[in-house]
Write a structure and sequence with these properties.
The chain is α+β, with helices and mostly antiparallel strands. Helix content is 13%, strand content 34%. It contains 4 helices and 12 strands, in the order βββββαβααββββαββ. The protein has helices at residues 56-64, 77-85, 93-96, 158-161; strands spanning 15-16, 18-22, 30-34, 37-41, 46-51, 66-71, 101-102, 111-112, 117-128, 133-144, 164-167, 170-173. A 7-stranded antiparallel beta sheet has the order 3-2-6-9-10-5-4. The chain has a 3-stranded antiparallel beta sheet with strand order 1-11-12, with no helix packed on it. A two-stranded antiparallel ribbon has the order 7-8.
């Protein structure tokens, strides 16, 4: 087996494709697509989103210090792509893509009703890193559509939500579950005789 080298680049895939919503009044609301997003810490819960300074959401988040990461689904694929290539300076993306802004629980930024899971965030630090600035944020609330809650376990069902991912310029549906955290070392249950 041989290996090929590529120039240094961002090849950590797949990533979530999220709709980042921001703004503190309905006249100031905006939404954009981001894939440079992820978890930083569990305790306290913290995440990040990296945004180019030229994007309208960048200036809004710098001002309000709040945003919401709205997970996307197969059903939201077209709207997710469109919100990533169009500017909020030229379009009201909520109206254009029939996205419903709803009041978040803790932050002033809206959540998106069509998203199965919305993560409310308050910015703690902004790091300028080159082409993008990283907004490091504390997660202050998570809300989800109750139709994705498993009645027996009380857990959020990722499979039912049909989340999508972004990989090297393309969007993908999520595949079948291959295991769960710790399954490789879990003791086998003794079979009943």
């Amino acid at each position: 087996m041989s290996r090929i080298n590529f120039k240094a680049g961002t090849m950590i895939y797949p990533l979530p494709a999220v709709l980042v919503s921001c703004g503190d009044t309905i006249d100031n609301y905006n939404v954009m697509t981001a894939a440079w997003v992820g978890t930083i810490c569990s305790e306290p819960p913290m995440c990040y989103v990296s945004i180019r300074p030229s994007r309208l959401c960048h200036s809004i988040i710098c001002e309000t210090k709040e945003f919401v990461l709205n997970l996307t689904t197969e059903e939201l694929a077209e709207a997710t792509d469109w919100c990533g290539v169009r500017s909020g300076r030229d379009y009201n993306k909520f109206i254009e893509k029939n996205l419903t802004p709803i009041e978040s629980t803790v932050v002033s930024a809206p959540s998106i009703a069509q998203s199965p899971l919305s993560i409310e965030c308050k910015v703690e630090e902004i790091k300028s890193l080159g082409s993008h600035d990283m907004f490091i944020a504390r997660v202050v609330n998570v809300n989800c559509d109750d139709k994705y809650i498993d009645k027996a376990t009380g857990e959020f069902s990722l499979e039912k939500a049909k989340l999508m991912a972004y990989s090297h310029g393309k969007y993908y549906s999520m595949g079948k579950r291959l295991g769960f955290f710790g399954y490789s070392v879990q003791k086998k249950k003794a079979s009943k005789k």
